[in-house]
Amino acid sequence: MSQATMDPVGARRTAPRRGAIVALLVTAVALVAIVLLGAVPGPLGTAIAVVLPWLGFALVPLVVGALLVRPRTAWIAAVPVVAWTVALWGFLPVPWQGGPGAGDGLLVATQNVEAGSGTGAASARTLAADGAQLLAFTELDADSGAAIADELADAYPHAYRVGTVGVWSRYPIVDQEALDLGLGWKRALRVTVEAPSGPVSVYVVHAASLRPGAQSARDGMLSALGERIRDDRTPRVVALGDFNAVSTDPALASISRELGEARFGGLAPSFTWPASFPAVRIDHVFQRGFAEAAAKTTTAGRSDHLAIIAALRG
């Protein structure tokens, strides 16, 4: 007769013990990932930032399992849940309070229209109908850039386009500048928009793509953008576009030190890419000088990115 047959009680005790060990290991890994958030540069830091929002979904069954297996020590599994909430508190959804009536602020919209999608005009038409006073588009090609310009010519007479990025405004653009941010070719711009409440410095960026083993171009662009924003003395600054980095990516640190990200409305985390099944938010609206900044995602055209509309108030 085997030992397992002779000692069924011992076997029953082993299973919960193994479950507790697994729970402790998962808890430890989760805590390490959360603690390292923002502290590790390069590919590892980017990987942690991408995975972290999804970690919350994995932690829920961990807590439930711990309650079922070891109720008295289930609080251990709750530790990473609390840590995860604290780490992502500034990025968790808030009620959407936007709309055309943005008070003395600014309603802005941005989208990567996907080169070759052929729906630039449709995207522009959709976002203009939402009442935005300023529209920023990235990954423009010759056709989409021309189509957007034609679509917005009457309602948005003030425009500036450089390379793959462009901005269209209802308000006058009084200063404009092309930026390469160390990339060697232009994928960013800066304009000063004369809004009713005063000048706003606007940066539109299409960061270099993030590819395994080759993210230095993206990191360099974002770092250079942070330096430009740090030296910008305009009281109100907005930076928007496709940053190819999630909110908690260490590569955004130089920007996050200067600007706050618009908080998203709704119950979902408001990911923007890919549009068919959004898994990450790599498109953003950052700002300073406005008292409130609320945002939401929306579908526009047939791009592989969802668009963002942000209401900047006060």
Structure characterization notes:
The protein is of the alpha+beta class. Helices cover 37% and strands 25% of the residues. The chain has helices at residues 3-6, 8-36, 42-69, 75-87, 120-129, 142-152, 216-231, 253-256, and strands at 106-112, 134-138, 158-162, 165-169, 173-179, 188-195, 198-206, 236-242, 260-261, 263-264, 283-288, 292-298, 307-313. A seven-stranded mixed beta sheet has the order 3-4-2-1-13-12-10, with helices on one face. It has a six-stranded mixed beta sheet with strand order 5-6-7-8-11-9, with no helix packed on it. Strand 12 (292-298) and strand 13 form a beta hairpin. It starts with a helix and ends with a strand. The relative contact order is 0.15.
How are the elements arranged and paired?
Elements: H1 3-6, H2 8-36, H3 42-69, H4 75-87, E1 106-112, H5 120-129, E2 134-138, H6 142-152, E3 158-162, E4 165-169, E5 173-179, E6 188-195, E7 198-206, H7 216-231, E8 236-242, H8 253-256, E9 260-261, E10 263-264, E11 283-288, E12 292-298, E13 307-313
Parallel strand pairs: 1-2, 7-8, 10-12
Antiparallel strand pairs: 1-13, 2-4, 3-4, 5-6, 6-7, 8-11, 9-11, 12-13
Helix pairs in contact: 2-3, 2-4, 3-4, 5-6
Describe this structure in a few short sentences.
By secondary structure, this protein is an alpha+beta fold. It contains eight helices and 13 strands. Helix content is 37%, strand content 25%.
